[in-house]
Design a protein that fits this description.
Helix content: 25-40%
Order of helices and strands: EHHEHEHEHHEEEEHEHEEH
Low-confidence stretches: none
Distance between the termini: 44 Å
Number of strands: 11
Strand content: 25-35%
Radius of gyration: 23 Å
CATH topology of the largest domain: Molybdenum Cofactor Biosythetic Enzyme, Chain A
CATH architecture of the largest domain: 3-Layer(aba) Sandwich
CATH class of the largest domain: Alpha Beta
Mean pLDDT: 94
Structural class: alpha/beta
Number of helices: 9
Strand order of the largest sheet: 2-1-3-8-7-6
CATH superfamily of the largest domain: MoaB/Mog-like domain
C-alpha cells in the first residue's frame, strides 16, 4: 500500500456527553497529540461533541469538506447513544452496509455469538476501509478523509498509531524556540510582531503575555521546519535588539 503524502495536519473529533458533563476525563486529545508529534504532524483542530446526531452530522460534514484528514473517537458501537456510524454515512452521502470482512472478524471471535446487535458493530458506510483493533478485534473504519475509532482510549490510541504508520508518510521534522521578553508589554510589540509574521509566513508564531512577580513579560514562540525556525529566530533577535527590547531564551 502506497503511503499518502504527509498532510498539513490532522483534526480530532471526540464524541461523548460523559466527557462534557465531567463523568469521564478525556484522554483522546493528549494521546493523539503525542502520536502526531512522534510522526512530525501538526494538530489543526480538536473538538468534543455531545451525543447529538444533528450536531455530529453537522461537524462531520464540515470535517469531510476540509483538506486535512481527521480522527473521530466514540459513538461507533451498537447502543442507542451511538450515532457516529450513521452520521458518517450520511455526511459522506453513502448508505450503511454490513462490512463483509468485518463480519468475518466477528465470526472468528471465540465466545462471541453473532447476534443482530453485534453485527451492527461492523455496519459501516459503503466502501469503508477497516482499521484493525488489537484490543478486542472489533474494527474501526475509514471513509472519505475520516478515521473512525472507538471511544475507549485504550483502543483508539493503538488504532491511531496504526493509521499514522500504515497510511501516511511522516511529516518533516519541526522544532520550536521560545524567547522571553522580561518587562515587555504585548501591545507595545504589535507593529514588530506584524512585520515579522508577514515576512516569515512559513512559521507558526505565538505571543503569550504574562503578569509575573515584579511586572510583566511576553513569551514569543516560533515553530516550524528547522532551517526556517533558525533563520526566523536570528531575524527576530535582530529586530528586538534594534528596538531596544531585552530578551532571554
Amino acid at each position: 500500500m502506497a503511503l499518502t503524502k504527509a498532510p498539513d495536519g490532522f483534526g480530532l473529533i471526540i464524541i461523548g456527553s460523559e466527557i462534557l458533563d465531567g463523568r469521564v476525563q478525556d484522554k483522546h486529545f493528549e494521546n493523539t497529540r503525542k502520536l502526531l508529534q512522534a510522526h512530525h504532524h501538526a494538530f489543526r483542530y480538536s473538538m468534543v461533541l455531545v451525543d447529538d446526531p444533528s450536531l455530529i452530522l453537522e461537524k462531520l460534514k464540515w470535517a469531510m469538506a476540509r483538506p486535512e484528514p481527521f480522527f473521530c473517537c466514540g459513538g461507533i458501537g451498537s447502543t442507542p447513544d451511538d450515532y457516529t456510524r450513521q452520521c458518517a454515512a450520511e455526511a459522506a452521502g453513502l448508505p450503511l452496509e454490513l462490512h463483509p470482512q468485518g463480519i468475518e472478524i466477528l465470526k472468528n471471535r471465540p465466545g462471541f455469538p453473532l447476534t443482530p446487535a453485534r453485527m451492527k458493530m461492523v455496519e459501516f458506510p459503503k466502501g469503508a476501509d477497516l482499521i484493525p483493533n488489537p484490543i478486542n478485534q472489533i474494527p474501526g473504519f475509514t471513509i472519505v478523509n475520516g478515521h473512525f475509532l472507538p471511544g475507549f482510549p485504550s483502543m483508539a490510541e493503538p488504532m491511531t498509531a496504526w493509521v499514522l504508520a500504515t497510511l501516511y508518510e511522516e511529516g518533516d521534522l519541526k522544532v520550536s524556540r521560545t524567547l522571553i521578553l522580561p518587562g515587555a508589554r504585548e501591545g507595545d510589540l504589535v507593529p514588530l510582531m506584524e512585520a515579522f509574521t508577514q515576512s516569515h509566513p512559513e512559521l507558526v508564531f505565538s505571543s503569550l503575555p504574562k503578569f509575573v512577580e515584579g511586572g510583566t513579560e511576553v513569551r514569543i514562540g516560533l515553530s516550524g521546519a528547522v532551517e526556517a525556525v533558525e533563520k526566523g529566530f536570528k531575524d527576530l533577535v535582530k529586530e528586538l535588539r534594534a528596538s531596544g527590547v531585552k530578551w532571554v531564551e
